[in-house]
Amino acid sequence: MRYVALLRGINVNPRSQMAMADLRALLEGLGHTGVRTHLRSGNAVFTGDEAPRERVAATIEQRITEELGMEVAVVVRTAGELRAVVEENPLEVRDPAKFAVVFLAAEPDRRALEGIDPASYAPEEMRVGRRELYMYFPDGLGRPKLPPLLGKRSSAVATMRNWNTVTKLLALAED
């Protein structure tokens, strides 16, 4: 089974530094093959035995804690699930650098999300997917309004990637 692991908050501050060579070695140490990383933000593609993605994520999180001494949330998708994320995108990608997908570890709390008034984050846009949130930030990702609003309404494990990264990870997963 081909998997994509998305690590939350990697290399964004001095306490979250992780070399991608260390991540590759860690994944290979878990028995995964064909391990590739993309960028320095904790994106990895690998092949492993078929297992529930939650178990794959938990195993990676545990090994990172044991070997690297870091507490890192990991969200995992199969290559097929990532393909569906791209194909089921409900928004127009006007600028891939300003378009992002928030990957959730579990299904979103739709009631909580419906309670957010779109006027409070306009002109930003958001649509809810299966276990993803699709977002467009016309003013860029520098100081978006939407992520802080979501953080107040949800404690779910989540990590965001821009569209360029999502599509590159899909290409790596299907390569």
UniProtKB/TrEMBL annotation:
The lineage of its organism: Bacteria, Bacillati, Actinomycetota, Actinomycetes, Streptosporangiales. This is DUF1697 domain-containing protein. Pfam families: DUF1697.
